[in-house]
Write a structure and sequence with these properties.
Elements lengths: L5 H18 L10 E8 L3 E4 L5 E3 L1 E6 L3 E6 L2 E3 L7 E3 L6 E3 L13 E8 L2 E4 L3 E5 L13 E4 L4 E3 L10 E5 L12 E3 L5 E3 L10 E8 L4 E4 L3 E6 L7 E7 L4 E7 L4 E4 L1 E5 L3 E6 L10 E3 L4 E4 L8 E8 L4 E18 L4 E3 L5 E4 L1 E5 L3 E6 L2 E2 L9 E4 L2 E4 L8 E9 L2 E11 L2 E5 L5 E6 L4 E3 L3 E4 L3 E6 L11 E3 L5 E3 L8 E9 L2 E12 L3 E4 L4 E4 L4 E4 L1 E3 L6 E7 L2 E2 L7 E2 L3 E4 L8 E9 L3 E11 L6 E6 L5 E7 L10 E8 L3 E12 L4 E5 L5 E9 L14 E2 L10 E6 L5 E7 L12 E8 L7 E5 L3 E5 L6 E10 L2 E5 L3 E4 L10 E6 L6 E6 L3 H4 L5 E11 L11 E5 L7 E4 L6 E10 L11 E4 ...
Parallel strand pairs: 2-11, 12-19, 21-28, 29-37, 39-46, 48-56
Antiparallel strand pairs: 1-4, 3-8, 5-6, 5-9, 7-8, 9-10, 9-11, 13-16, 14-17, 15-16, 17-18, 17-19, 20-23, 22-26, 24-27, 25-26, 27-28, 28-31, 30-35, 32-33, 32-36, 34-35, 36-37, 38-41, 40-44, 42-45, 43-44, 45-46, 47-50, 49-54, 51-52, 51-55, 53-54, 55-56, 57-58, 58-61, 59-60, 59-62, 62-63, 64-65, ...
Main location: membrane
InterPro entries: FN3_dom (IPR003961), FN3_sf (IPR036116), Ig-like_dom (IPR007110), Ig-like_dom_sf (IPR036179), Ig-like_fold (IPR013783), Ig_I-set (IPR013098), Ig_sub (IPR003599), Ig_sub2 (IPR003598)
Membrane topology: Single-pass type I membrane protein
Length: about 1200
């Protein structure tokens, strides 16, 4: 009811109040006085676990800071007087203790918190505190439950505790009870039997409860069933164990879960179906569970209000139950009350609009008390769903509560009225920089406060004109909206708040950035296993922004590392495998925007192996094999390969049996007898073969006579009186039984002989005492313990061959040319060949050249001809022209060549000559070239002359005109003067006979450099002959040095002892002081150097002077003083002492001029190595 005088005022101020309502939602700065506001509170239904502490939250703000108080069950709760309860500092949160004298359940009640200061009181929701419980089931001894077979049964669970625990049933073996259409658990935890069977008494039934809050499981005492049986279980009509009756009402709140249950009883077990009046059950929204006994709608809407019918049907009858589902709605805000901030003498209003089913009732409260009991306020009036304020005054600030409630719940909201007189102020940061993306809707924030509400205007770049209209819009909270930011919108913006009590200003700088966009986004990629996969991700972005690239795999961060490498513009995956398959997302993020694109990587791999191999339909020689194909891994399976392993003949070795198209998974395998089979299957696609499947079970076939015929039967004689019959062995899979052997049959061809046979386990059989090269009919068959197999076709074999008896006759040569000749001969009779004619063979050799000065090598060659005519002939090729040849022929069978024919001679005609032996071009003078060549090694006839052509060349290109010179056969050089010394020429020489020009040889002239001389004076150090000579010389020098060293070590062959007439045996190896006597070494070495034995030497010594004179002739005649060894051994002349190696050979020259040198001196003087050193 509107007070007197308010009607005209509302008509005038109503539209303005609508505007103010949106403006006055701004936040009051904390340093200004304001009524309390609840900032945090517990849920309306507050369920707590005592183990985690019992507390009820309540926090608020205000200026001055509010004081907290509580109501319990609608009455004032004096917290300080309860020693078990405390209130947290600077908060209204209650902490509740418990112990022996205070149980947690004693705190269960309804609580409401109030925050109060000088300007009003804010109220929280009414909080219902409930304590979580998981009590133990009471100890009880349950008597066995007796029930008749065919009757229904309900085993109650009734779990204790709060909240309701999750229940499940186990048997005496602690295994879940098997549930089906007959036995199932209801939503209340009870176990329902549509009818009981005798087997139900074989186990116990225990209900178990899982408490989520405490993470514990408790078990109820088990039920034991005693099923009473009768001869025949009577069929019964269906009935419902739950629900009762034919109809019921089900109320559910919108957004909550709806569960409808129909659990029938009856025998046979009834079938449950669901129907919705006015339409079908929406299967996409509705879930039918528990063997069709439960209908579940996870989140209800108003459209779910309807009649739902469940039917239960068996052979006896059909019954129905109708659920009248009513969806109710808790109260919800259409327009929630908001704080009102006004200056003195200003107007305003608070709106509270709510909806629900049924429609909620709205109640206003002031500082937690009903408004009708509050102190009257002439500036306040309730008008429908709004509180209207007019000409408010300082001191009338308060907190108002709006409570909207219906039968199913309530909602409560606080909104204060704060009467202030404050100058405008800016609440946001100063000189803020805002970066935005081009073409995006942009908001420039400018939070402000003032009472009365200031007028806010925006300006750009210091211009006096305000921003309004077009793409600019100022929102009630002061934010400037730019509908589509462009590059020209960059700049400095100013927001100015003005009221009657002051002015405030703030600045914002706007930068417009280029948007990030993909230039090469990820694309769907297919890669083969083991290859390199590259997923592109390239984008263009503003260069002034930092950018990060992130990769996700299947919406989770990709594990980057050596397997997944993040490159600059792509993701590389080397050696991909199947685990790499998935969805890859590339996220490119800057500080302003973020784009992402996804692509799927498909890895094509070889198939997965087939599984579940099963054998069926067995028969004598076939069986059906069935398998389950594995995954094709994105490449269709082309075929299946069936392999087998034979335990008897090839254990452990898998062999291919047959292949089948990729669309089959059940085939009939054709098998062979006497095999113990085991099968496996391999799938094949374009990538490769799968791993083999797990082998099937064994399958054994029975034995039978062989089916196969021995192949490749042959009869060949290796001697003139025998024949070997051979054949190819049967495969292991062709044996068909044990003890495989072969029966060999033979007889002479075109004779009336009986077939002879022999049995063998080998693959060949020999026949002896045969005539030479006689044909035989041969056949072979296999046999085993089950019988004989089929015979092979009859083939013709021959016994052994012998050496031919005759040679070809009347051998002649005709049509002789330079390199070919035709040979004719008379054939050898077949009877003389002593076997099958294999060939006629011509042996020929070049005996001499028709040029008397040319020597040739006698290399015998041969050529083979095959002819069965009576006057055969052939062409002998590869002959040398203008030569004398000799030839003879033989005939050959498969084993031997016959005797040679008479040797004949023939000549070849002239041919064209070969290339000249060499061609050199030398620069004798600066402007003169000298060309020289030699006649061909193979003239192939009488040389008539030479042709020389030359032409100026430029690099590898021919540039000049051809010049031709001809020369007689005795001229082999040519000189020319070239006009330009820098010009190069190419010379070509060919030799001529009467038949024409022969093969060419070419050479180019040298450059005008030292090359001319380098060509003339060949570097012999690189020539093979020089290297060989040097090696031989070095080896010779080494041998000489070794010989000289040995001779110096032993003193040479000088017979010192004999010259002194000292007997050899009288010399001691050592003197008195133990020093070594060189004569002992001389004696030992002399033995091996004398040209006669020692016995002969002794006889020579006995002869006296004749022997002495012969030995003295080996050295120059000298004085006895000079020859004495005593002079060298006892001191003598110092110039005659031993040299470094102790040798005294050559020291006998004494004081005379030595005309001969010792071995050392001669070796050094004449050594080739010394000559080389001197050259060096």
């Amino acid at each position: 009811m509107v007070p007197r005088g308010w009607g005209p005022a509302l008509a005038v101020w109503g539209p303005l109040l609508l505007l103010w309502r949106g403006v006055f939602t701004m936040e009051v700065p904390q340093d200004l006085r304001q009524p309390p506001t609840i900032t945090k509170q517990s849920m309306k239904e507050h369920l707590v676990d005592p183990k985690e502490g019992i507390f009820i939250e309540c926090e608020a703000k205000g200026n001055p800071f509010p004081v907290f108080s509580w109501r319990k069950n609608g009455k004032f709760y004096n917290v300080p007087r309860d020693s078990w309860v405390s209130m947290r500092r600077w908060s209204g949160t209650l902490d509740m203790g418990f112990g022996h004298q205070r149980r947690p359940e004693e705190y269960e009640a309804e609580y409401q918190c109030f925050a109060t200061n000088d300007y009003g009181s804010a109220a929280s929701d009414k909080i219902r505190l409930r304590i979580s419980k998981s009590p133990l089931w009471p100890k009880e001894v349950l008597e066995p439950v007796s029930v008749n077979a065919g009757f229904p049964l309900i085993l109650a669970c009734d779990p204790p505790g709060l909240p309701t625990p999750q229940t499940f049933w186990l048997n005496s073996s602690m295994l879940p009870i098997r549930q089906d259409r007959r036995v199932s658990m209801g939503s209340n935890g009870d176990l329902y039997f549509s009818h009981v069977m005798v087997n139900d008494s074989l186990t116990d039934y225990s209900c178990n409860a899982r408490f989520k809050a405490t993470q514990t499981i408790q078990q109820k005492s088990p039920y034991t069933l005693k099923v009473l049986t009768t001869r025949m279980v009577a069929e019964t009509v269906p009935s419902f164990l739950i629900p009762k009756g034919t109809s019921s009402i089900k109320v559910v709140l919108r957004g909550e879960e709806l569960v409808l249950e129909c659990i029938p009883a009856g025998f046979p077990t009834p079938v449950v179906r669901w129907y919705k009046r006015g339409g079908d059950v929406p299967l996409r929204k509705v879930k039918v569970e528990n063997f069709n006994k439960t209908l579940r709608i996870p989140r209800t809407t108003d459209d779910d209000t309807a009649d739902y019918t469940c039917t239960a049907t068996n052979r006896m009858d059909i019954i129905r139950h109708v659920f009248n589902v009513q969806v109710k709605v808790l109260p919800y805000w259409v327009e929630k009350p908001t704080n009102l901030i006004v200056a003195p003498d200003e107007n305003g209003r608070i709106v509270c609009r709510a909806q629900g089913t049924p429609k909620p009732t709205v109640q206003w409260l002031v500082n937690g008390e009903p408004i009708e009991f509050a102190r009257p306020n002439p500036s306040r009036q309730v008008s429908g769903d709004a509180l209207v304020f007019r000409s408010v005054q300082v001191g009338s600030s308060a907190v108002y509560q709006c409570n909207a409630s219906n039968d199913y719940g309530y909602i409560l909201a606080n909104a204060f009225v704060n009467i202030l007189d404050a100058a405008p102020r800016m609440l946001g940061p100063r000189n803020q920089l805002v970066k935005v993306i081009e073409n995006n809707r942009t908001f420039l924030s400018c939070p402000f406060f003032g009472a009365p509400v200031p007028d806010l205007r925006w300006f750009k770049d210091g211009h006096s004109a305000g921003l309004s209209g077009g793409q600019y819009k100022t929102l009630p909270n002061g934010t400037l909206e730019i509908r589509r930011a462009r590059t020209e919108d960059q700049g400095s913006y100013s927001c100015v708040a003005t009221s009657r009590v002051g002015r405030a200003e703030n600045h914002v700088r706007l930068e417009v950035k280029e948007p990030t966009r993909f230039t090469r986004p990820p694309q769907r990629l297919t890669a083969s296993r083991g290859s390199l996969a590259r997923i592109d991700c390239r984008a263009k972005y503003d260069i002034t922004l930092s950018v990060t690239v992130t990769w996700l795999k299947d919406n989770k961060p990709a594990n980057l590392g050596w397997r997944l490498r993040k490159e600059e513009d792509h993701l590389a995956i080397p050696g991909v495998h199947r685990e790499d398959e998935g969805k890859y997302t590339c996220i490119i993020k800057t500080e302003l925007d973020e784009i992402s694109a996804s692509a799927r990587l498909i890895v094509i791999d070889r198939p997965d192996p087939p599984t579940d191999l099963e054998l069926s339909d067995p028969s004598e020689r076939s069986v059906r094999l069935t398998w389950v194909p594995g995954g094709d891994n994105h490449s269709p399976i082309l075929e299946f390969l069936v392999q087998f392993e034979d335990e008897r003949w090839a254990s452990g070795r898998w062999q291919n049996l047959s292949s089948y198209p990729g669309n089959l998974n059940s085939v009939i395998l054709q098998l062979v007898p006497f095999i113990n089979f085991q099968f496996r299957v391999i799938a094949i696609n374009a990538i490769g073969w799968s791993r083999p499947s797990v082998p099937s079970q064994r399958y054994k076939t029975s034995g039978a006579p062989p089916d196969a015929i021995p192949a490749n039967v042959r009869g060949v004689g290796y001697r003139r009186t025998n024949m070997e019959i051979s054949w190819q062995a049967l495969k292991d899979t062709e044996r068909n039984g044990p003890h495989l052997r072969y029966v060999v049959w033979w007889r002479r061809t075109n004779s009336r002989e009986e077939w002879k046979n022999a049995t063998t386990y080998w693959l060949r059989y020999y026949i002896y005492d045969t005539d030479t090269f006689t044909p035989y009919e041969i056949k072979v068959q296999a046999m085993n313990d089950f019988g004989l197999g089929p015979e092979s076709h009859v083939i013709i074999g021959y016994s052994g061959e012998d050496r031919p008896l005759a040679a070809p006759t009347n051998v002649q040569v005709s049509n002789t040319e330079s390199t070919t000749a035709t040979v004719h001969w008379n054939a050898v009779p077949q009877s003389s060949i002593m076997g099958a004619l294999k060939e006629y063979k011509v042996y020929y050799w070049r005996h001499s050249s028709m040029l008397p000065w040319l020597s040739v090598r006698w290399d015998r060659k041969n050529q083979v001809f095959y002819s069965t005519s009576s006057r055969p002939w052939g062409v002998v090729t590869d002959l040398m022209p203008y030569s004398n040849y000799k030839m003879y022929m033989v005939v050959a069978n498969n084993r031997y060549e016959g005797p040679p024919s008479s040797t004949i001679e023939f000549q070849t005609t002239e041919g064209v000559p070969g290339p000249v032996e060499f061609l050199t071009v030398q620069q004798r003078h600066l402007d003169t070239l000298h060309v020289e060549w030699d006649k061909p090694p193979e003239p192939n006839g009488i040389l008539t002359g030479y042709t020389l052509t030359y032409q100026a060349v430029n690099g590898s290109r021919e540039a000049g005109r051809f010049q031709v010179e001809t020369f007689p056969a005795n001229v082999t050089s040519f000189s020319m003067r070239r006009p330009n010394r820098y010009t190069r020429y190419k010379f070509t020489v060919t030799a001529l006979t009467q038949l024409g020009a022969g093969e060419e040889r070419s050479e180019e002239s040298p450059h005008y450099t030292n090359e001319a001389y380098s060509r003339e004076q060949v570097d012999i150090s690189t020539q093979g002959w020089f290297i060989g000579v040097m090696c031989a010389g070095a080896l010779l020098v080494l041998i000489l040095l070794i010989v000289c060293f040995i001779k110096r070590s032993r003193g040479g062959k000088y017979p010192v002892r004999e010259k002194k007439d000292l007997p050899l045996d009288s010399v001691d190896d050592k003197d008195q002081d133990g020093s070594f006597d060189y004569r002992s070494l001389e004696r030992i070495n002399r033995v091996s150097t004398l040209p006669y034995p020692k016995r002969e030497e002794d006889s020579q010594q006995m002869r006296g002077s004749q022997s002495q004179a012969s030995l003295d002739g080996m050295v120059k005649m000298q004085d006895s003083e000079d020859d004495s060894l005593v002079e060298y051994g006892d001191g003598g002349d110092g110039d005659r002492q031993f040299n470094e190696d102790g040798s005294f050979i050559g020291q006998y020259t004494g004081k005379k001029d030595r005309e001969e040198t010792d071995c050392n001196q001669s070796s050094e003087a004449t050594s080739p190595m010394n000559a080389i050193y001197s050259l060096a």
